[in-house]
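Hi F.,

I've been meaning to write this up properly since the lab meeting, where we talked about keeping a consistent format for the predictions we share between groups. The idea is simple: the sequence comes first, exactly as it goes in, then the structure tokens exactly as they come out, then a line or two of notes. No screenshots and no reformatting. I'm using this chain as the first example so we have something concrete to point to.
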Amino acid sequence: MKVKSSLKSLRARHRDCKVVRRRGRTFVINKTDPRFKAKQA
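Output, unedited:
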């Protein structure tokens, strides 16, 4: 999982990426290709 300050560019890496908020943190998740997970610092 990548940790970044800005997730906008990471969302564009794959067309199935979604930005979700969980427990006060922002994540990029991808059900079809889990390599593209990211978390906001």
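Notes:
The chain has a mean pLDDT of 96.
DSSP finds one helix and four strands in the chain.

If this format works for you, I'll send the rest the same way.

G.
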